[in-house]
Amino acid sequence: MLKRVHFTKSWLPFALVAPQIAITLIFFIWPATQAVYQSFLIEDAFGLSTEFVWFENFQYLFTDEIYLNSFGRTIFFSAAVAFISMSSALILAGFADRVIRGATVYRTLLIWPYAIAPVLAGALWVFMFNPTLGIFPYFLEFFGYDWNHYLNGSQAMLLVILAAAWKQIAYNFLFYLAAMQAIPRSIIEAGAIDGASPIRRFWTLVFPLISPTTFFLLVINAVYAFFETFGIVHAVTQGGPANATTILVYKVYNDGFVGLDLGGSAAQSVILMIMVIFMTIIQFRYLEKKVQY
Amino acid sequence: MATISLKDLVKNYGKVEVLHHVEGEFHDGEFIVIVGPSGCGKSTLLRMVAGLETVTSGEIFIGDKMVNNLEPADRDIAMVFQNYALYPHMTVRENMAYGLKLRKFSKSDIERRVQEAATILEIQDYLDRRPRQLSGGQRQRVAMGRAIVRDPQVFLFDEPLSNLDAKLRVQMRLEIKKLQRKLGVTSIYVTHDQVEAMTLGDRLMVLNGGYVEQFGTPIDLYEKPASIFVAGFIGSPSMNFLPGHLANAHIELENGQKIPTTSVQQGDAIFGVRPEHMIVDENGPIEVVTDLCEQLGANTLVHGVLKDGKTGIVASIQGHWDYEPGSVLGFNVLPDNHHLFDKETQKRLEN
Asked: How far apart are CA A36 and CA A26, in angstroms?
């Protein structure tokens, strides 16, 4: 049986997909190949001469302690962001699923943070936690805790994690809520009759049934934390203090545009690219197969 | 095992009252069927007994305990849902054991009960499968199994057979009835299917628009329907209703034909007769212009219209018959099979 529309004129399908192909070629494939090419070059700081060096940039990266530290930091950062934003979203969605009155208002308000630009989200948190002006350092002082993320690396890390996680909660919330509402009510009711408390029902029925969504969000959040948090880091800490919050994507920018090491920066972005490809493969290959019930 | 009583039960959704002062006393071990058209409130009533819907006013007793404010888990009930509501991520065994585990039964006790229930329902071979690997009928059995392992005081069934095909439905209907007899557990069964209701129920509660139209044994409902609604709902094909005027122990139909009755009442009334009680009789008082014959094998359904009138009539007669459209047939009805209803109140008129 024919499942697709068939065109009699052969040029029409090509014309229809041409814009998509053009966009992909110009904005994705071409810059990507340029980056790969660039990663094989070393350029002097004034841009007067370039030399083709094969994998020297990569070799250097993997012996560079600063880069390797940044790698480990990024993994910690991503894991923390994914965990905080997903668990908060899960709790909020769990409650939203039970809300009867004012549910739409509640949901709409929870979705708003997603519409805020990363830099603005970062600015918001910078103000709240500013050591001299911010409201949180003021409160923390009552407990005798000294907050200064300009000096303290762990505090700076905590702050970017919170800011990045906060922004992603809305997205995760939407998916979790949709997944929960797709569970037939009668299954939850059967659980209630079987004698499970609401919390028990959540962990033994709801949570396993939304596991495909959890896996999907895990990949999405990892990608987000790896690649889309540049704006937040830039606004909050600019990678400091002493590189404490320089995650990989920020280091690409820093080395390339501030340090003007274009070859090294390109090599880093190629590594990031490979990681994205890898994560996408995981998502496509396993999302539909692995998480089953 | 327990009695259930419903006392002056009312349910509101917002300002709309959907159940109006429902009363009912269900005996220990009785199989009660709540039947009615969709939207009549039958599922709501069942869910109130289960504790899944709040009670607006009135009281529900299970045994001698008022359960209005008890959680579903504390009412000692089990429910079989229309879509079975099996836990899709658990095996059949885990599905049945879930409630027992929560109630802190010992491991060996759980295993024994699951095996017992599985043997009764003949699902021992599927214990390690997931619900999606089972057919509709098997899922139905698992849902039943999950209900019986806990050995509850009350079974609640919410249209459990409506997702099965016709043949399986008849088979499962018998099995549910047998199982209920064997276990002797008080059961409430909700359905819109009058055949299911008649065959399963010890007593039937007919609901219409949130009111209890009649509550009685299937034979009571069939022989002495309390209202036109019950009369039309119970029995297939439906009872024929002929409007007329009662006077001098006769009812005069719209075409002027007179049928003798035993009633001493006067005034406008509806004369009811079931298709299977129409007897072909040349001199019978009910003359029908035939239209179409449906041969069902054992009997023939004759569709037609009252002669010189507008009212459609169906008669069910034994054997194979085929009448030309337009031929006139006379029918007689035994006085025992007459039903008279008040035209205004739609209620049954007694002699």
From this structure: 15
Q: What is the ipTM of this complex?
A: 0.82
Domain-wise residue ranges, chain B: 4-231, 237-342
> What's the pLDDT at A263?
80
* B85–A186 C-beta distance less than 8 A: yes
- Cβ <8 Å between A194 and B102: yes
What pLDDT score does A2 carry?
A: 55
Beta-carbon separation of B72 and A200 below 8 A: no
Instruction: Name the residue with tokens 């008080």.
Output: B186
CATH 3.90.1580.10 fits B4-231, yes or no: no
Tokens 């836990």 -> residue: B87
Mean per-residue pLDDT, A164-176: 90
Per DSSP, helices labelled H in A143-241 are 153-181, 185-194, 198-201, 207-209, 211-227, 230-236
8 Å CB contact between B269 and B349 = yes
CA distance B98 to chain A (A): 7
Which residues of chain A have a CB within 8 Å of the CB of B83?
184, 186
Instruction: Specify the pairing of strand B211-216 against strand B203-208.
Output: antiparallel
- Tell which CATH classification among 2.40.110.10, 1.10.3720.10, 3.40.630.30, 3.30.1370.110 matches the domain A56-287: 1.10.3720.10
**DSSP-derived pairing of the beta strands B203-208 and B31-35:** parallel
Q: Say which CATH architecture domain B237-342 belongs to.
A: Beta Barrel (2.40)
Contact B78 A193 (CB under 8 A): yes
What per-residue confidence (pLDDT) applies to B110?
93
> What are the structural domain ranges in chain A?
56-287
- Inter-chain touch A186–B81, beta carbons under 8 Å: yes
Model confidence at A6, pLDDT cuts 50, 70, 90, reads low
Answer for the pair B187, B31: CB distance below 8 angstroms, yes or no.
yes
Distance from the Cα of B346 to chain A's closest Cα (Å) equals 38
pLDDT, averaged across chain B: 89
Shortest CA distance from B148: residue in chain A? A194
pLDDT above 90 (res A272): no
Report, as an integer, the average pLDDT of B75-90: 91
A7 confidence band (pLDDT: 50, 70, 90): low
- Contacts of residue B78 in chain A, CB cutoff 8 Å? 193
pTM: 0.79
Question: B12-60, pLDDT tens digit by residue?
Answer: 988 899 999 999 999 999 999 999 998 898 999 999 999 999 999 999 9
At position B71, the amino acid (one-letter code) is: E
Contact B146 A208 (CB under 8 A): no
